[in-house]
Amino acid sequence: MSVTPDAALSPSAGRRFRAYTTKHLDELTARAGLAADERLAVQAVAQVLPFRVNSYVVDELIDWDAAPDDPIYRLVFPQADMLPSGDVARIADLLRSGASRKELNEAANHIRATLNPHPAGQMDLNVPKIGNEEPVPGVQHKYKETVLFFPKQGQTCHAYCTYCFRWAQFVGDADLKFASSDIDQLVEYVRSHPEVTSVLFTGGDPMIMGEGVISRYIEPLLEIEHLEAIRIGTKALAYWPQRFVTDPDADDTLRLFEKVVASGKNLAFMAHFSHPNEMKPELVQEAVRRIRSTGAVIRTQAPLIRTINDDPAVWESMWRTHLRHGMVPYYMFVERDTGPQDYFAVPLAEAYEIFRDAYQKVSGLARTVRGPSMSATPGKVCVDGVTEVAGEKVFVLHFIQARDPELVGRPFFAKYDEKAAWLFDLKPALGATHFPWENAPVGSADGLVDPTRL
């Protein structure tokens, strides 16, 4: 591992972290050329959905001459039409009249409650219990092999994505927040579940934590023999690569990564890149090189988002760039059914075409990527294609992962619907009365279609 950053890096490389929040929003959106009424509408949206950006994103990633249409600007700045116009007007009126913080919070909470803040059973179906009674705080165990852990100190990010499905973690409502600092309970839980081979640290962003904190969470897990992999889900490479290059604890963090690898565990760095422009700065390229030098594997993933990356050329460029720098393209996700989904979602039929057009233009080394994939309540469902079977146009789908392991890898079909944007928008095809994960009505078939009979 090299501990000396490249001297040719940009002037921003060694700067201290500076965050911009809602109080800076008017100034920044004015820089993007928005008129006063447009800026007020953006402020209204930011009362409901979280806003945070930092100096690196502002100075190095956003092309302000192209704003507000620049993809990175749209990635981090709220848009006036992300919420229903009536909701935006209501909050804007409160702001204009000088309403109290209590009034604003009450109005914002009312809107948030309509946005499905914790999709896919995260707060109930995914939380394990000790002795079937006490829930294990900060832990989710949806798939038998993998446990998710939400470290308390990692429940923010260097910047917030406007499409983030974990937006509820960041709005200051204790009832919506999901986190724990009890590493002993996590270790005990993993030890007592030998089927768990992977622990994923998630958030927020675990890499917002300093090395001294994240070590206290990771090091005790290295002694668990049946644990094969530690994963870290993070956007830090895109939003604050200094974390791995010039921050005071950058070298210590990389030594921690080396320690994980030396213990015989796989360290999977799950990096979120939403657009090729995030890879352009030399600083992020140096950060990637340094992480890889520790023996960690960097896998890249992102959702398909309307107005930001809904173009096959964008994904082709992104996957080829990631491969060139030694990273492994891993997932194209479908925007989840939470927050401003209607604003960002791409219909499944279009998503499949974008994935296919990009996939066919990259080499086999980049075809490690899977998608479009929906992380829905029953599991991760991949759209494999659109075809015609027995005279009916259908989506072909399969489970990459599932609550019920018996469903993994088994193909199933749904009626073609050009407007469907999520799993629950679909209906069973080819005479089936229900989908494989649904309870079968009395006297019905099991909902699976045997392709050998078609």
Automatic annotation (TrEMBL):
Keywords: 4Fe-4S, Iron, Iron-sulfur, Metal-binding, Pyridoxal phosphate, S-adenosyl-L-methionine. The keyword Iron applies. Its cofactor is pyridoxal 5'-phosphate. Residues 141-365 form the Radical SAM core domain. It comes from the Bacteria. InterPro entries: Aldolase_TIM, Lys_aminomutase/Glu_NH3_mut, rSAM, rSAM_sf. One of its GO terms (molecular function) is 4 iron, 4 sulfur cluster binding. SUPFAM superfamilies: Radical SAM enzymes. This is KamA family protein. It comes from Nocardiopsis aegyptia.
